[in-house]
Amino acid sequence: MATVKDILDRKGATVVTIVPDDSVLTAAKLMNQMRIGGVIVVEDDDIVGIFTERDVLRRVVAERLDPATTQDGLCGIVTSGDLLAHQAEEQADTIQYLNSYMFDIRT
Is the pTM of this model over 0.70? Predict the structure, then answer.
């Protein structure tokens, strides 16, 4: 099975970054130039977020905002792992509810 190191060895270890004060337009131009789907947002050598193509579409284009003047800053990062954990919790709640309903367990 491939490791993260194997993938980085093949892909390369270049990390493209922007700062929080950069505009969405700057980030989009950089992503196009580098042919990548996202950039890491850094401030004082600390990673403070990630900005992706999806952010451009959902938060700027769909909201009809001007990409030359927009960069609201990091609100948080949601990963696929976060979504799976949330889904698992919801399913556990549903299972508990159905179990109580089926077996008339009153709490």
Answer: no
